[in-house]
């Protein structure tokens, strides 16, 4: 469904990504893991067209998208929920969700029906529909941001650190919601620093280090690797 081939992305002279090749198949949750500054967000921005690669190709549903405008990439069903819960603070939860659907021309009755579907994934948003964005907790804002992404009816949903800064119990809920989104038929590319919990819901994963992929394997094998690294460090 998504295929990156030997991508290089720069900020001026700084090489942020080098020789990145990766794939996401339909139906999967794929984790993209790495420490601060590894290049995770840059990878998502390169895929969604916010930054252009200096070299390499990005294919989505069999078409090259590395020079397609970002809004057209959205229309093709590739949705990027950026880092940092960027919802509109002066709009209500309902209005934030409606905005997610505006890339498609659909009737308000359909929008309302789709809001109901988002609420099946995030029931905690139900009593908050008329609350303004700024008045929500971090976890509630994050649910709203992911919910808004769902309103675009993604074929592939890319989430940038959805668990960042959330209390442990809320993190649990967020990962369960992502699993549910996937079970309902949406493919997910999940960027996380939280390796253990994201691999627990993922099929496969890639590990980025200083702009390069240093590991790529099934989620259970990567989890084993992490376990062994900790055991090694404890000796
Ligand atoms: N706008 C920018 N201009 C210059 N350098 C940048 C810019 N954005 C990111 N970088 C650099 O590119 C590298 C990768 O950054 P990126 O934001 O992709 O990392 P990340 O893995 O998402 O990190 P984090 O976990 O902190 O979000 C870092 O060295 C960062 O300093
Ligand atoms: Mg980032």
Automatic annotation (TrEMBL):
The keyword ATP-binding applies. InterPro entries: AAA+_ATPase (IPR003593), ABC_transporter-like_ATP-bd (IPR003439), BCAA_Transport_ATP-bd_LivF (IPR052156), P-loop_NTPase (IPR027417). Residues 2-235 form the ABC transporter domain. Pfam families: ABC_tran. GO terms for molecular function: ATP binding; ATP hydrolysis activity; branched-chain amino acid transmembrane transporter activity. The keyword Transcription regulation does not apply. It comes from the Bacteria. GO terms for biological process: L-amino acid transport. CDD domains: ABC_TM1139_LivF_branched. Keywords: Amino-acid transport, ATP-binding, Nucleotide-binding, Transport. SMART domains: AAA. Belongs to the ABC transporter superfamily. This is ABC transporter ATP-binding protein. It comes from Paenibacillus xerothermodurans.
């Amino acid at each position: 469904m998504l295929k990156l081939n030997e991508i290089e992305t720069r900020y001026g002279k700084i090489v942020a990504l080098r020789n990145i090749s990766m794939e996401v198949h339909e139906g999967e949750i794929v984790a993209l893991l790495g420490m601060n500054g590894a290049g995770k967000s840059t990878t998502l921005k390169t895929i969604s067209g916010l930054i252009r690669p200096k070299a390499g190709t990005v294919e989505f549903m069999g078409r090259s998208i590395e020079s397609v405008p970002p809004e057209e990439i959205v229309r093709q069903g590739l949705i990027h929920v950026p880092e940092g819960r960027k919802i509109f603070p002066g709009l209500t939860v309902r209005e934030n969700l409606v905005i997610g659907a505006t890339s498609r021309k659909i009737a308000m009755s359909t929008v309302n029906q789709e809001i109901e579907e988002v609420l099946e994934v995030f029931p905690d948003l139900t009593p908050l529909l008329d609350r303004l964005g700024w008045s929500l907790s971090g976890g509630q804002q994050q649910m709203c941001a992911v919910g808004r992404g769902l309103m675009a009816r993604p074929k592939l949903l890319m989430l940038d650190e959805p668990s960042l800064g959330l209390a442990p119990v809320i993190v649990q809920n967020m990962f369960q919601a992502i699993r549910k989104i996937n079970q309902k038929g949406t493919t997910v590319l999940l960027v996380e620093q939280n390796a253990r919990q994201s691999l627990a819901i993922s099929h496969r994963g890639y590990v980025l280090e200083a702009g390069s992929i240093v590991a790529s394997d099934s989620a259970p094998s990567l989890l084993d690797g992490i376990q062994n690294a900790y055991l090694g460090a404890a000796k």
